Amino acid sequence: MGLIFPRVAHNFIKNGYFPTDEQTLEGVLAHLDSDGGSVRVLDPCCGCGTALEFVRDRLVESGAVVETFGVEFDSERAWHAKNALTRVIHSDVNDVHVTPRGVGLLFLNPPYGHALRDDNRSGDRKQSDRLEKMFFRKSIPWLATNGVLVLIVPFAVIDREFAQMIAKQFTDVEIRMAPEKKFRQVVIFGRKKRSESPSVETVTRLLAVGQSGYEACATLDPSAPAATYVVPSFVAGDKFGFVSLKVDAKQLGAELASAKVSTLWPTFRQFAGSTKTLVRRPLRELSDWHLALALAAGQIGGIVRSSDGRDLLIKGDTLKDKVRSSEEVVGENGSISVTTVLTDRFVPTIKAIDLTRDSDRYGEVFTIK
């Protein structure tokens, strides 16, 4: 599989990083609306987080409560975005887990160009996949049914395969050329539907754009949006996972120092932090047999006082031992065969520390049998 790297177009303006320009963003925002509920928006290659900030502000104006999520491979841009968005992971998008159908809007302006292959030593890129398609396949399952897609890609990348991928997953597809002409981009809007046979009409329109570009569709115009896409709200209380599968020291340190929900290991505090345990009385008084069994199983322990007045800190456990038995059999010809049998035996053991004050054996560790 190809590796997803930072943006790698043929011209390396700003070290290969091509943020969405302001004109295009204004046109995108004119197409978006909300029903005033709580929404999640995600950018799987968020850069500095600027585009998602604009989207958030637009949806907030419509009355929504917005949570913004981003993934960014570049360290400097990722840490800048962490200060701008709700939650950001500095990671390759392949190392991120997002709850399927968990977000209401997917803003996807992926890297442009071909992926680099592990086995591609000859420099021939004909066999490598396009980064735009790889990001599309990876992130589309995260978008909820009826969720809104904003896809920004060079129009030349839209071949029959890409057109069918879009038409199979989305309805109400609108296609507009980006106002900024330098990177020859097209902006595609759509609403997620249940996967089915691709619409022939949608495939035809997408292919026309891929082949003819500017002649096949109008330019994105913020003053006259072609359609309005309402970002659906999520159900309050639903479980949403947005986590990195690989933890680096810098992000882990920041997560542990933050009061926010962790994007790296959400259950860290559960396993490593102290928690209060609710103590309940047993339904009935435990018999000596119950106590001995629980003690041998390592489930109970603590300080007890022995019959001779000593204070002991005890802890039980059960170890597995082997019992060896041998049997000799003498054959008719006088030969002797020996059969050895090893049988498992579970042996309860109780360790104790003498805590009797002023005792000569204070601190001594011994085994109770």
Describe this structure in words.
A hairpin with a 7-residue loop joins strand 8 and strand 9. This protein has two domains: 13-244, Vaccinia Virus protein VP39 (Rossmann fold, 3-Layer(aba) Sandwich); 288-368, no CATH class. It is α/β, with parallel strands linked by helices. The longest helix has 13 residues, at 200-212. It contains nine helices and 15 strands. Helices cover 22% and strands 30% of the residues.
Shape: elongated
Largest sheet: 7 strands, mixed
Helix-strand makeup class? alpha/beta
Q: Can you count the beta strands?
A: 15
Which CATH architecture of the largest domain? Answer: 3-Layer(aba) Sandwich
Distance between the termini: 60 Å
Put simply, the count of helices is: 9
* Percentage beta strand: 25-35%
- Mean pLDDT equals 83
What strand order characterises the main sheet?
4-3-2-6-7-9-8
pLDDT < 50 runs, ≥5 residues: 1-16
**Can you give the helix content as a percent range?**
10-25%
> Cα-atom Rg, whole angstroms?
32 Å
The CATH superfamily of the largest domain is Vaccinia Virus protein VP39
Key features of this structure:
single chain, 369 residues, alpha/beta, Rossmann fold, 2 domains, seven-stranded mixed beta sheet, four-stranded antiparallel beta sheet, elongated
Topology:
Layout: H1 22-29, E1 32-34, E2 38-43, H2 50-61, E3 65-72, H3 75-82, E4 87-90, E5 96-98, E6 103-108, H4 131-139, E7 143-154, H5 160-169, E8 170-177, E9 185-192, H6 200-212, E10 229-231, E11 242-244, H7 249-257, H8 268-272, H9 288-296, E12 301-305, E13 311-330, E14 336-354, E15 365-368
Parallel strand pairs: 1-10, 2-3, 2-6, 3-4, 6-7
Antiparallel strand pairs: 5-11, 7-9, 8-9, 12-13, 13-14, 14-15
